[in-house]
Backbone:
């Protein structure tokens, strides 16, 4: 079994149950788990990582992304649009995607996340044009080496049925459910330490029917997998719900079985007090995506109120067509700043933002084996260099969120080092970027 001994870290922010913070301590990784934490650990034959001058945190957890969108960053015509207009600009471009676009764009998004300290990410893939499959993104995650929760998204109401997406991007609901079963059976690993899990994720209440929402929940619970969708993202979204369903999004979700500890909703910018109570009571999770909410002018999610009420909250960078950065530690910083805009400078500390980005996200994704550094938990660590310019002159490890760095020095996932000296060890990144840019140019010409 491979062992790595990480020696003499300046700071280890564990995010364990007691929120221990250690100085000058060591961590022993054995196989995929943390085997020991403490001073002067010994392990004959272990690989040694010298962590003097480093800050170690749990690997960050990303709870919402659309990896395929790394191919549509900063698209003209979608740069300044509100949500619905933004979607209508991008749908025809996304209709030109196929398996290669899905694979390469996922590699880029996953690499970007890894370099920003992320060890576990979910992805919400809800369109499957030209033979694309969820399998394409899972293959990309296996190459990069990130722990991956793929969700089988879906859209079924096309333009001709009064929906927003073009007909070419929607699928028949029977096929959606069949393919969901296929990918769960093929890839979902329920065991502790799983590198791949699969969830069920209709895109949003405005792109699928009530029937599909209900049947997806039944299927997910039958299979023991988690459920994910977009909810209450902005005012247009609330107005749509009131007009089409005669109720607010929280009520809609509850009526269709979309509340519970096995459900997490992206955004939730517009949840009201009653909906926050519903989510807290039912342990329904939220993927907070502050940069995307800023970019699309959606508003400031009531994260302070959610956290105070006991709603599980994690962070999401969201897709790269609406962020357009997939940097998770930068996202944590933005979450901290945005709560301060609304609620004052003491509304969210750097420590709380880091907690949301680590154990908060792990809880939202149903992973009590991740999101903290503790004996027996998975060996997922982000190691930050405190000697770089961004951190120079800092007095406290809170500088990681208040100042930087915004890129990791090293990253361990399941005990394997996938970033070393700020570079991915598993892939040739310049080659992937070149392939991505060729695909983007082709899409721009279509
Ligand atoms: Zn999204």
Residues:
């Amino acid at each position: 079994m491979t062992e790595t001994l990480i020696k003499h870290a300046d700071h280890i922010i564990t995010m364990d149950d007691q929120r221990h913070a250690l100085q000058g301590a060591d961590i022993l990784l054995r196989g995929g788990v943390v085997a020991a934490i403490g001073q002067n650990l010994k392990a004959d034959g272990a690989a040694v990582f010298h962590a003097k001058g480093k800050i170690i945190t749990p690997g960050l957890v990303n709870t919402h992304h659309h990896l395929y969108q790394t191919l549509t960053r900063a698209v003209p015509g979608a740069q300044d649009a509100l949500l619905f207009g933004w979607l209508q600009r991008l749908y025809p471009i996304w209709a030109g995607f196929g398996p290669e676009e899905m694979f390469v764009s996922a590699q880029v998004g996953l690499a970007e996340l890894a370099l920003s300290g992320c060890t576990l990410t979910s992805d919400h893939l809800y369109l499957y044009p030209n033979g694309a499959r969820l399998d394409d993104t899972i293959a990309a995650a296996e190459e990069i080496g990130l722990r991956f929760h793929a969700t089988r998204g879906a859209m079924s109401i096309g333009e001709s049925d009064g929906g927003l997406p073009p007909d070419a991007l929607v699928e028949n609901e029977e096929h959606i459910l069949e393919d969901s079963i296929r990918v769960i059976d093929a890839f979902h690993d329920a065991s502790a330490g799983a590198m791949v899990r699969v969830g069920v994720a209709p895109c949003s209440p405005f792109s699928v029917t009530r029937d599909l929402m209900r049947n997806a929940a039944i299927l997910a619970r039958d299979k023991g997998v988690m459920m994910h969708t977009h909810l209450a993202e902005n005012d247009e979204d609330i107005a749509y719900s009131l007009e089409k369903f005669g109720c607010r999004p929280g009520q809609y979700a509850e009526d269709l079985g979309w509340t519970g500890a096995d459900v997490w909703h992206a955004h939730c910018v517009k949840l009201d007090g009653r909906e926050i109570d519903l989510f807290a009571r039912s342990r329904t999770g939220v993927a907070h995506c502050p940069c995307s909410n800023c970019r699309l002018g959606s508003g400031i999610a009531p994260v302070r109120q959610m956290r105070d009420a006991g709603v599980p909250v994690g962070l999401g960078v969201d897709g790269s067509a609406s962020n357009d950065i997939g940097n998770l530690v930068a996202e944590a910083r933005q979450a901290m700043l945005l709560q301060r805009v609304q609620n004052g400078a003491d509304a969210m500390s750097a420590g709380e933002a880091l907690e949301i980005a680590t154990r908060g996200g792990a809880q939202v994704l149903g992973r009590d084996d991740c999101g903290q550094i503790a004996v027996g938990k998975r060996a997922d660590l982000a190691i930050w260099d405190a000697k770089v310019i961004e951190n120079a002159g800092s007095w406290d490890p809170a500088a990681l969120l208040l100042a930087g760095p915004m890129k990791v020095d090293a990253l361990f996932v399941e005990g394997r080092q996938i970033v070393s000296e700020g570079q991915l060890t598993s892939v040739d990144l310049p080659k992937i970027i070149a392939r991505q840019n060729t695909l983007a140019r082709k899409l721009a010409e279509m």
